[in-house]
Amino acid sequence: MAEAEQVAERKKQTGANQVEEMAKAVHGAAEELGQQLPKAAEFVHAAASRLEEGAGALRQRNVEDMIRTFNDFWRKEPLAVFGGAVLAGFAISRFLKSSVDNRP
Known about the structure:
- It comes from Bradyrhizobium retamae.
- The chain is mainly alpha-helical.
- It has helices spanning 3-34, 38-60, 63-76, 78-101.
- The chain has one domain.
- Helix 1 crosses helix 4 (78-101).
- The mean pLDDT is 84.
């Protein structure tokens, strides 16, 4: 394996780990959100589950194939990608805010 491929593989694994951590944070935010907006929390949990699936796919696929797939999806469904990013940001911000509010 060429050095560039090894670096890309390491970055891919690091990215998968970060996506898993983000999914955990989004699940946590969904738990907080569920107290006030249970239906919205279900949607946020579903988004977090998709992140977990994405982390698994990230580990299993090669870098070139993943770039091609994401670009195709982005072109076909830009609103879905944007909407998912907005919801994830909202959920994470609520989770972080609640974490700060709960400090002694």
